[in-house]
Protein backbone atom coordinates (compact mmCIF):
# COMPACT_ATOMS: atom_id res chain seq x y z
CA UNK A 1 0.00 0.00 0.00
CA UNK A 2 1.24 3.44 -0.89
CA UNK A 3 1.41 6.09 1.89
CA UNK A 4 -1.35 8.03 0.11
CA UNK A 5 -3.59 4.97 -0.15
CA UNK A 6 -3.62 5.25 -3.96
CA UNK A 7 -3.34 2.26 -6.25
CA UNK A 8 0.11 1.89 -7.80
CA UNK A 9 -1.27 2.91 -11.24
CA UNK A 10 -3.34 5.82 -9.90
CA UNK A 11 -2.63 9.50 -10.50
CA UNK A 12 -3.06 12.04 -7.78
CA UNK A 13 -6.11 14.27 -8.12
CA UNK A 14 -5.24 16.43 -11.17
CA UNK A 15 -6.87 19.70 -12.22
CA UNK A 16 -6.02 22.05 -15.07
CA UNK A 17 -7.59 25.47 -14.64
CA UNK A 18 -7.18 27.56 -17.81
CA UNK A 19 -6.96 31.34 -17.80
CA UNK A 20 -6.28 32.27 -14.14
CA UNK A 21 -3.79 35.04 -15.05
CA UNK A 22 -5.76 38.01 -16.37
CA UNK A 23 -2.95 39.76 -18.21
CA UNK A 24 -1.18 36.79 -19.80
CA UNK A 25 -1.89 35.69 -23.37
CA UNK A 26 -2.24 32.16 -22.00
CA UNK A 27 -2.23 30.69 -18.50
CA UNK A 28 -3.03 27.61 -16.45
CA UNK A 29 -3.12 26.74 -12.76
CA UNK A 30 -2.17 23.06 -12.62
CA UNK A 31 -2.59 20.91 -9.54
CA UNK A 32 -1.13 17.43 -9.11
CA UNK A 33 -2.44 16.65 -5.63
CA UNK A 34 -0.77 19.13 -3.26
CA UNK A 35 1.68 20.33 -5.92
CA UNK A 36 0.34 23.56 -7.44
CA UNK A 37 2.03 25.46 -10.28
CA UNK A 38 0.93 28.66 -12.01
CA UNK A 39 1.96 28.74 -15.69
CA UNK A 40 1.70 31.93 -17.75
CA UNK A 41 2.64 32.32 -21.43
CA UNK A 42 3.75 35.69 -22.80
CA UNK A 43 3.93 36.61 -26.48
CA UNK A 44 7.04 38.48 -27.65
CA UNK A 45 7.47 39.95 -31.14
CA UNK A 46 11.25 39.51 -30.93
CA UNK A 47 13.54 36.50 -30.80
CA UNK A 48 16.90 35.99 -29.07
CA UNK A 49 19.76 37.73 -30.92
CA UNK A 50 21.24 34.45 -32.13
CA UNK A 51 18.00 33.65 -33.98
CA UNK A 52 17.47 37.00 -35.74
CA UNK A 53 17.19 36.74 -39.49
CA UNK A 54 16.77 32.97 -39.41
CA UNK A 55 13.06 32.96 -40.17
CA UNK A 56 11.96 30.94 -37.19
CA UNK A 57 10.82 31.58 -33.65
CA UNK A 58 11.52 30.26 -30.19
CA UNK A 59 9.72 28.87 -27.15
CA UNK A 60 11.42 29.04 -23.77
CA UNK A 61 10.51 28.76 -20.11
CA UNK A 62 11.42 30.13 -16.72
CA UNK A 63 10.80 28.12 -13.54
CA UNK A 64 10.89 29.05 -9.90
CA UNK A 65 9.67 28.01 -6.48
CA UNK A 66 8.06 30.63 -4.26
CA UNK A 67 9.77 31.05 -0.86
CA UNK A 68 6.99 29.31 1.08
CA UNK A 69 6.13 26.65 -1.47
CA UNK A 70 7.93 24.20 0.84
CA UNK A 71 7.89 23.39 4.56
CA UNK A 72 10.62 25.88 5.36
CA UNK A 73 11.12 29.25 3.67
CA UNK A 74 13.48 29.18 0.70
CA UNK A 75 15.51 32.15 -0.43
CA UNK A 76 14.02 33.81 -3.48
CA UNK A 77 16.20 33.13 -6.51
CA UNK A 78 17.22 36.08 -8.66
CA UNK A 79 17.86 35.70 -12.36
CA UNK A 80 21.56 35.06 -12.85
CA UNK A 81 21.83 33.47 -9.43
CA UNK A 82 19.55 30.51 -9.97
CA UNK A 83 20.50 27.08 -8.68
CA UNK A 84 21.61 24.35 -11.05
CA UNK A 85 18.35 22.51 -10.34
CA UNK A 86 16.26 25.52 -11.37
CA UNK A 87 18.22 26.02 -14.58
CA UNK A 88 17.96 22.33 -15.46
CA UNK A 89 14.19 22.27 -14.93
CA UNK A 90 13.46 25.37 -16.97
CA UNK A 91 15.56 24.02 -19.84
CA UNK A 92 13.61 20.76 -19.61
CA UNK A 93 10.30 22.64 -19.83
CA UNK A 94 11.51 24.62 -22.84
CA UNK A 95 12.72 21.50 -24.66
CA UNK A 96 9.45 19.72 -23.95
CA UNK A 97 7.37 22.55 -25.41
CA UNK A 98 9.58 23.07 -28.47
CA UNK A 99 9.16 19.38 -29.32
CA UNK A 100 5.53 20.08 -30.25
CA UNK A 101 5.88 23.50 -31.92
CA UNK A 102 6.67 24.28 -35.56
CA UNK A 103 9.17 27.06 -34.92
CA UNK A 104 9.16 28.17 -38.57
CA UNK A 105 5.38 28.58 -38.49
CA UNK A 106 5.80 30.75 -35.40
CA UNK A 107 7.82 33.27 -37.41
CA UNK A 108 10.48 35.40 -35.77
CA UNK A 109 8.58 35.58 -32.50
CA UNK A 110 9.12 34.15 -29.05
CA UNK A 111 6.80 32.74 -26.41
CA UNK A 112 8.06 32.71 -22.82
CA UNK A 113 6.26 30.46 -20.35
CA UNK A 114 6.75 31.28 -16.66
CA UNK A 115 6.15 28.36 -14.29
CA UNK A 116 5.94 29.38 -10.63
CA UNK A 117 5.55 26.70 -7.99
CA UNK A 118 3.04 27.92 -5.41
CA UNK A 119 3.08 24.72 -3.37
CA UNK A 120 5.40 21.73 -3.69
CA UNK A 121 4.72 18.08 -2.84
CA UNK A 122 6.80 16.25 -5.44
CA UNK A 123 6.58 16.28 -9.22
CA UNK A 124 6.85 20.04 -9.71
CA UNK A 125 8.64 19.72 -13.07
CA UNK A 126 6.11 17.26 -14.48
CA UNK A 127 3.18 19.38 -13.33
CA UNK A 128 4.86 22.46 -14.79
CA UNK A 129 5.31 20.85 -18.22
CA UNK A 130 1.70 19.67 -18.30
CA UNK A 131 0.33 23.08 -17.33
CA UNK A 132 2.80 24.96 -19.52
CA UNK A 133 1.41 23.27 -22.62
CA UNK A 134 -2.09 24.54 -21.77
CA UNK A 135 -0.76 28.08 -21.33
CA UNK A 136 1.25 27.85 -24.56
CA UNK A 137 -1.74 26.55 -26.49
CA UNK A 138 -3.89 29.41 -25.22
CA UNK A 139 -1.25 31.96 -26.21
CA UNK A 140 -1.05 30.55 -29.74
CA UNK A 141 -4.84 30.54 -30.09
CA UNK A 142 -4.88 34.15 -28.86
CA UNK A 143 -2.35 35.09 -31.55
CA UNK A 144 -4.54 33.47 -34.23
CA UNK A 145 -7.59 35.44 -33.04
CA UNK A 146 -5.53 38.64 -33.10
CA UNK A 147 -4.43 37.96 -36.68
CA UNK A 148 -0.77 37.80 -35.67
CA UNK A 149 -0.39 34.31 -37.15
CA UNK A 150 -2.70 32.44 -39.54
CA UNK A 151 -2.73 29.11 -37.69
CA UNK A 152 -1.42 27.69 -34.44
CA UNK A 153 2.15 26.36 -34.73
CA UNK A 154 1.45 23.65 -32.14
CA UNK A 155 1.75 20.19 -33.68
CA UNK A 156 0.75 17.98 -30.73
CA UNK A 157 0.10 17.96 -27.01
CA UNK A 158 2.82 17.19 -24.46
CA UNK A 159 2.53 16.13 -20.82
CA UNK A 160 4.83 14.72 -18.18
CA UNK A 161 4.60 12.40 -15.19
CA UNK A 162 6.87 10.88 -12.58
CA UNK A 163 7.15 7.18 -11.75
CA UNK A 164 9.28 5.22 -9.33
CA UNK A 165 9.92 2.03 -7.43
CA UNK A 166 8.16 2.34 -4.08
CA UNK A 167 8.75 -0.56 -1.69
CA UNK A 168 9.99 -2.46 -4.72
CA UNK A 169 6.83 -1.89 -6.77
CA UNK A 170 6.42 0.41 -9.80
CA UNK A 171 4.25 3.41 -8.88
CA UNK A 172 2.78 6.31 -10.84
CA UNK A 173 2.92 10.03 -9.99
CA UNK A 174 5.05 10.15 -6.85
CA UNK A 175 4.34 12.67 -4.11
CA UNK A 176 7.16 13.94 -1.89
CA UNK A 177 6.90 11.16 0.71
CA UNK A 178 7.31 8.53 -2.00
CA UNK A 179 9.88 10.41 -4.06
CA UNK A 180 12.15 10.94 -1.06
CA UNK A 181 12.27 7.22 -0.24
CA UNK A 182 11.91 5.57 -3.69
CA UNK A 183 14.47 2.99 -4.77
CA UNK A 184 14.36 4.53 -8.25
CA UNK A 185 12.60 7.54 -9.69
CA UNK A 186 11.96 8.68 -13.23
CA UNK A 187 10.35 11.55 -15.12
CA UNK A 188 8.78 10.93 -18.52
CA UNK A 189 7.80 13.59 -21.07
CA UNK A 190 5.42 12.15 -23.67
CA UNK A 191 3.47 13.67 -26.56
CA UNK A 192 -0.22 13.18 -27.24
CA UNK A 193 0.69 10.74 -30.01
CA UNK A 194 2.79 8.70 -27.59
CA UNK A 195 6.26 9.89 -28.62
CA UNK A 196 8.97 10.12 -25.99
CA UNK A 197 10.47 13.60 -25.64
CA UNK A 198 12.66 13.03 -22.61
CA UNK A 199 13.26 10.37 -19.97
CA UNK A 200 15.12 11.04 -16.71
CA UNK A 201 15.63 7.90 -14.61
CA UNK A 202 17.88 7.32 -11.63
CA UNK A 203 18.48 4.46 -9.20
CA UNK A 204 18.82 5.68 -5.62
CA UNK A 205 20.47 2.46 -4.46
CA UNK A 206 20.57 -0.86 -6.25
CA UNK A 207 20.31 -0.67 -10.07
CA UNK A 208 16.91 -1.41 -11.55
CA UNK A 209 16.26 -3.99 -14.25
CA UNK A 210 15.02 -3.75 -17.82
CA UNK A 211 11.75 -5.25 -16.68
CA UNK A 212 11.31 -2.67 -13.94
CA UNK A 213 12.07 0.16 -16.35
CA UNK A 214 9.55 -1.25 -18.84
CA UNK A 215 6.94 -1.28 -16.07
CA UNK A 216 7.68 2.37 -15.23
CA UNK A 217 7.42 3.33 -18.90
CA UNK A 218 4.08 1.54 -19.22
CA UNK A 219 2.72 3.42 -16.20
CA UNK A 220 4.03 6.72 -17.57
CA UNK A 221 2.39 6.21 -20.96
CA UNK A 222 -0.93 5.45 -19.30
CA UNK A 223 -0.64 8.49 -17.01
CA UNK A 224 0.34 10.86 -19.81
CA UNK A 225 -2.49 9.57 -21.98
CA UNK A 226 -4.92 10.59 -19.22
CA UNK A 227 -3.25 14.01 -18.88
CA UNK A 228 -3.31 14.53 -22.65
CA UNK A 229 -7.04 13.86 -22.73
CA UNK A 230 -7.53 16.45 -19.98
CA UNK A 231 -5.51 18.97 -21.99
CA UNK A 232 -7.59 18.26 -25.07
CA UNK A 233 -10.86 18.80 -23.18
CA UNK A 234 -9.94 22.34 -22.13
CA UNK A 235 -8.43 23.66 -25.38
CA UNK A 236 -9.62 27.16 -26.13
From TrEMBL:
Keywords: RNA-binding, rRNA processing, tRNA processing, tRNA-binding
InterPro entries cross-referenced by the UniProt entry: ExoRNase_PH_dom1, ExoRNase_PH_dom2, ExoRNase_PH_dom2_sf, PNPase/RNase_PH_dom_sf, Ribosomal_Su5_D2-typ_SF, RNase_PH, RNase_PH_bac-type, RNase_PH_CS
Family annotation (CDD domains): RNase_PH_bact
Lineage top rank: taxon: Eukaryota
Residue intervals of the Exoribonuclease phosphorolytic domain: 10-139, 156-222
Membrane-spanning ranges: none
PROSITE patterns: RIBONUCLEASE_PH (PS01277)
SUPFAM superfamilies: Ribonuclease PH domain 2-like (SSF55666), Ribosomal protein S5 domain 2-like (SSF54211)
Keyword tRNA processing: yes
Sequence similarity: Belongs to the RNase PH family.
Name of the protein described by the UniProt record: Ribonuclease PH (RNase PH) (tRNA nucleotidyltransferase)
Amino acid sequence: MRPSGRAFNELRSVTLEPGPAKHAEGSCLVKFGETHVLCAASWDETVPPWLRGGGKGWVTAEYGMLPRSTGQRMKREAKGGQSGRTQEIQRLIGRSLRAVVDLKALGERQIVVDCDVIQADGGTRTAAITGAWVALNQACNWAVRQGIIKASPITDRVAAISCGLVAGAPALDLDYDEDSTAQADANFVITGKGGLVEVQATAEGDPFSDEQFAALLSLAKSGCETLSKMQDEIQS
